[in-house]
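Handout, section B. The chain below has 376 residues.
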Amino acid sequence: MDKFKSIRPFGDHEIKAVLDSLSNNETIFKLFIKTSNLEFLQNFPFVKSLLKRKILKLKDSINNVDDLQQYFKKLVQGVIDNTINQFSYSGLEHLDPNSNYLFISNHRDITLDPALLNFVINNHGHKTSNIAVGNNLMSHAWAANLMRLNKSFIIQRDGSSKKDVYEGLNLASEFINVCLENNESVWIAQRQGRAKDGIDTTDPAILKMIQLARRKSSSTAAYFNKLKVVPVSIAYEYDPNDILKAKELAILEEQGRYDKHPNEDLDSIVLGINQPKGDVHISIQAPMIFNEGEEHKVIAEKITSSIVSNYKIQPSNIAAYSILNKDTPEHCFQAAQITKSREYFQKRMAGLAPRVQNNLLLQYANPIMQVQSLIN
């Protein structure tokens, strides 16, 4: 019996049937049109049949998960070529292509954070990692199918009872552990949801969930040492979703709650893929070693410290900080780079309410303030 069937990525034997189902999906058609910047073609009847033929042709050329990963890698290369000025990375020397790791990353973009990391490590001889995705992104079957094609597995964070929630988290925990025990790497965000305020913190609850199915096997420190925890920091010079995030935070501050519209996550994914991001850097750290007796809170703090201290500051961070604080921290950028970022913010803030403007700037300034708090 396949106990993980409802949450795991699709296997070799399932891919062709899933691609078949996606070829007839109206929303997939709309997603393709949006991510390809071809909205002007959406009312032409031939476009749907063209897309269907494209998916079916892909199905004929895909025989296993590795084939599909190479296809997704080409898509990521297109995103890098078309929307990123300079894509850089550091820390690959810390990793062994023959080993597996638990990548714990800060989280800014729904799909690109793990996709860009997998792109980097796969280009250097590593197998791509399995990607943890919250069930909040899986409200539509087509979305779940699309993500599970790309080695994503589902963490069921809600349910009709506490027992349902526990069983869902325990199943995800067991799947993570089985992956790692079978020499498969796993990517998971350091907290639930994206850091919409630009503050990167590791939630101890994430660590407790990971250990849930093995909580009696060893001490907490020994357990996470065995998993080979690798902190990952991803830094986007510009976040295509920065205004949406700033508005969401403003509504939360004013009303105490925020209700997403039905296609909001899809719209965020499309923006993140299509729009310019400036320079992007991924910093990969060495596997961490925790001291005996350290529990989830201390381990989470150490992971946060590593992610924050290795975050690559961009000109946009300096510009936002200087606008907010009337002071410019030390930096190594040219004046023209800072001026360009200031002009970016002037355009983005035009017409926004003061609270939204402030939230927008804080997204970019907070990484600097987090580093300062570590030093102090």
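Note. The longest strand covers residues 229-236. Compare this with the example in section A.
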